[in-house]
């Protein structure tokens, strides 16, 4: 560990105090000593030594009582049990920063120049440096060792050195024995390798002589082959040279013709360039005109936006009218429901006619009056529906005209302004709204058509009920005719010749039977007719 050691030298004559700073490595020993006789104690021993100076020895023994006073004096926050580990941590921080130019943690030892004569303690300080001040975390006062302590320390060091010497001597002996064994083994292997080397040399000489003879023969053969290949390559080279010369002449002719073509094309291109320059000028003039037109188109777009706003208001008004028509249609539906209730009531009346067989004619007249009223209401409803359809058709025509106008304006906007994308998006939104309104109108038209179909169905039912009533009237008329005929046929029988009481009683009995039988038949026919009319009305 490197420390900054300060030594004080006092001069007796001049009484000046001089300070010497040096940096060196010392060994710090920390030992926790336990003593049980006569009292159980724990002491912390701190020892500073220098491996280069055997007389450099500072000792400090800190008991638990001394540590309490040290803790109070220096404001320590640890107890005696954890103090050694914290002191070791501080020393480790000093070691980690000893190689830096400006270390943060320093271990300073300030000692007098002649500590043996002065018997003054040395201060061991653990200092943290920063830009503002030097903070001493711990300051310990160490006493220089006495002669006896130094001798004991030297004796301990001597014993340690002797032990190390003995260990080194034993290691040397072991290494010598190992090396001698290795040397003998290497000598044996060397003799064997030298023999193998002699054998290899003899083999190598024989092989080199054989290879040299083969090499000479191969060289002569290769020389002959090389001469043959040389002559053949010369001939091929001449042929290639002739072919290349011919190809070169052809290429030169082709290039000359290509050059003439390129010159003509160059002239054409220069003429085209001049023409393009003139066209560019024309286009620039046109561009200026188009810019003016674009400004005009922008102004038109502003006006079209305003018109679009007015059209939006008109669309809202049309929607409001459509809503009013919907309410009107709802009212008409309610009236149709009322008419259906009236039809149900007529059914009930028809059922009542079965019970009131004697008053069929009066009920028929009342039914005819009710049917006239129903026809009048149906006519009024059909007229109102026709009016509603006319209004809806007018609204559809107006909407179509508005859609056509908006489409024309959109085409004008697209043709005149490609730059005004925002206006296009708004117009698209307006078109979508119009499409939505058209779809709503289509749905409403479908609903109106459904209502028309319902009205037609009700009209058909009413027509069917009319036909049923006509058939009922015909049946009633036929029955009345038959009743009149029966009554007329009865009168001459009453006006006939006088008969005996027995014959009269028999004839009257027969007539009563006949009358009752005819009445039963008529009642059955009436029941059948009314049941058939009721079933047809229900259907």
TrEMBL record:
Domain SAS-6 coiled-coil: 147-176
RNA-binding in keyword set: no
Principal location listed in the UniProt entry: cytoplasm
Protein's recorded name: Spindle assembly abnormal protein 6 homolog
Start-end of Basic and acidic residues biased regions: 239-248
Top-level division of the source organism's lineage: Eukaryota
One Pfam family, short name: SAS-6_N
Classification via SUPFAM superfamilies: Tropomyosin
GO biological process entries: centriole replication; spermatogenesis
Alphabetic keyword roster: Cell cycle, Coiled coil, Cytoplasm, Cytoskeleton
Region (Disordered): 236-264
All copies of domain Spindle assembly abnormal protein 6 N-terminal, residue ranges: 28-142
One GO term describing the cellular component: centriole
Gene3D superfamilies, sorted: 1.10.287.1490, Spindle assembly abnormal protein 6, N-terminal domain
Cell compartment(s), UniProt: Cytoplasm, Cytoskeleton, Microtubule organizing center, Centrosome
Gene transcribed to yield this protein: SASS6
């Amino acid at each position: 560990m490197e420390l900054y050691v300060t030594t004080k030298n006092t001069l007796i004559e001049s009484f000046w105090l001089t300070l010497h700073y040096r940096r060196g490595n010392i060994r710090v020993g920390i030992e926790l000593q336990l003593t049980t006789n006569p009292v159980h104690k724990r002491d912390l021993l701190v020892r500073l030594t220098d491996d280069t100076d055997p007389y450099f020895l500072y000792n400090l023994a800190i008991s638990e009582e001394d540590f309490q006073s040290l803790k109070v004096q220096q404001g320590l926050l640890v107890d005696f049990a954890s103090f050694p580990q914290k002191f070791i941590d501080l020393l480790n921080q000093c070691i980690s920063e000893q190689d830096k130019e400006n270390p943060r943690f320093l271990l300073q030892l300030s000692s007098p120049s002649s500590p043996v004569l002065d018997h003054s303690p040395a201060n061991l300080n653990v200092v943290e440096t920063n830009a503002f001040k030097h903070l001493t975390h711990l300051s310990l006062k160490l006493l220089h060792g006495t002669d006896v302590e130094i001798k004991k320390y030297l004796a301990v060091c001597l014993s340690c050195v002797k032990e190390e010497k003995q260990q080194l001597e034993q290691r040397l002996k072991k290494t010598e024995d190992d090396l001698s064994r290795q040397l003998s083994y290497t000598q044996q292997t060397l003799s064997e390798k030298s023999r193998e080397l002699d054998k290899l040399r003899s083999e190598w000489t024989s092989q080199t002589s054989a290879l040299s003879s083969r090499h000479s023969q191969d060289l002569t053969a290769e020389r002959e082959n090389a001469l043959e290949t040389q002559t053949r390559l010369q001939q091929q080279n001449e042929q290639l040279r002739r072919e290349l010369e011919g190809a070169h002449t052809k290429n030169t002719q082709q290039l000359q013709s290509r050059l003439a073509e390129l010159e003509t094309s160059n002239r054409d291109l220069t003429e085209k360039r001049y023409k393009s320059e003139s066209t560019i000028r024309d286009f620039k003039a046109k561009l200026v005109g188009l810019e003016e037109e674009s400004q005009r188109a922008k102004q038109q777009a502003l006006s079209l936006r305003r018109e679009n706003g007015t059209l939006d208001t008109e669309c809202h008004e049309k929607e409001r009218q459509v809503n009013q028509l919907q309410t009107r249609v709802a009212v008409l539906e309610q009236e149709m429901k009322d008419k259906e209730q009236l039809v149900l009531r007529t059914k009930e009346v028809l059922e009542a006619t079965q019970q009131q067989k004697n008053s069929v004619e009066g009920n028929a007249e009342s039914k005819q009056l009710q049917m006239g009223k129903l026809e009048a209401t149906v006519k009024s409803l059909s007229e109102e529906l026709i009016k509603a359809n006319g209004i809806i058709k007018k609204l559809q025509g107006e909407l179509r005209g508005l859609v056509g106008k908006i489409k024309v304006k959109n085409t004008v906007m697209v043709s005149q302004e490609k730059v005004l994308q925002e206006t296009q998006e708004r117009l698209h939104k307006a078109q979508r709204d119009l499409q939505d309104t058209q779809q709503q109108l289509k749905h409403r038209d479908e609903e109106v058509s459904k209502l028309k179909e319902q009205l037609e169905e009700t009209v058909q039912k009413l027509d069917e009920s009319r036909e049923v009533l006509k058939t009922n009237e015909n049946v009633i008329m036929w029955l009345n005719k038959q009743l009149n005929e029966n009554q007329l046929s009865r009168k001459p029988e009453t006006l006939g010749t006088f008969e005996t009481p027995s014959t009269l009683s028999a004839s009257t009995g027969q007539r009563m039977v006949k009358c009752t039988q005819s009445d039963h038949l008529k009642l059955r026919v009436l029941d059948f007719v009314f049941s058939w009319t009721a079933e047809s009305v229900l259907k």
